[in-house]
Amino acid sequence: EGEGEGEGEEGQPPLKKRRRLVIKESDEEDNNKENKEWKELEQGEEEQEEEKEKEEEEEEDNKNEEKAVDTLNDIDKFGCGKTLIKREEKEKEKEKKKKRKKDNEKIKEDVNDVRNKEWYKNPRDKNGIKKGEEGYNPKTLLVPKRDLDELTPAQKQYWEIKSDHFDGVLFFKIGKFYELFFMDAELGNEICGLEMVKSKKEAIPHVGFPENSFAKYADAFVNYGHKVYRIEQMETPEEAKKRINKSTALLQRTICQV
Fold this sequence. Notes:
Blueprint: E1 4-5, E2 16-17, H1 28-67, H2 87-112, H3 118-121, H4 145-150, H5 153-162, E3 168-174, E4 177-181, H6 182-192, E5 206-210, H7 214-223, E6 227-233, H8 237-244, E7 253-257
Parallel strand pairs: 3-6
Antiparallel strand pairs: 1-2, 3-4, 4-5, 6-7
Protein name: DNA mismatch repair protein MutS-like N-terminal domain-containing protein
GO molecular function, one term: ATP binding
Region (Disordered): 1-75, 116-138
C-alpha cells in the first residue's frame, strides 16, 4: 500500500496513512509467560472464594458421610432397613454445586465484557456530552458507577484510569508485561499484529507484550498518531498484601509516562 494524505482534525495538519507495521515476538516462552501472568491475576482475585467453597464442600461431604448408610445396619422399630441419605442424592448435590460454580464463572466473564454497554458503544464525556457533539471532551469517558462496581477489581481499576485518559492507548502493566484491552487491543492487533490472548475465564479483547519491548510498540502507536499512556505497578504483590493485610491484594497502579 502506498502513502496518502488522510483527513486530520480541524485546525490540525492531515495525518499520513502508514503501512501496517507487523511486529511479532519470536520467543514462544514470552507468550507462555504472558498467559501465565494473566491467569495469575484472575486467580488471585478468586483464590479466597475458591478456598471457601472447597472448605464448605468438604464440611458438607463429612456430614453426609456420617449420615449415609449403605447397608441395612440402621433398623427402625418396625424392623425395616432404611438409608438416611442415598448416594444418588449425594451425587446430585455435587452436580448442582458444579453447575452453580460454572454459572458464577460465566457471570463474571459477562460482567467484564462491557462491549454491549451503552456507554461503550456510544461514548459520552464526563459532562454527558456525546462524541461528535459540540463541547465534547475526548479525554474523558462517562462510566456509570454501578457498572464499575460490577467488574472484577483489576478491570475496575483499568476503567477508572481509562475513563480519565480516553484520548490515548493504555499500556497497562501486569507483572512483566504490558496489556492492552478492548479498543486498545484491537488497535494493537491492527497496527502491530499482536495476537489476541486466549483465556478460558475472559472473553474480552486483550493483547500484550514483554516489558522490554515498550519502546518498540510505543513508537509504533505514536507513528500512527496515537497518544500512549504508560501505566506502572507502584508496589510489589508482597507490599500490597502487607498494605491491606490480606493474602491477595490489587496492586496500586498509576500513569508514569505519556
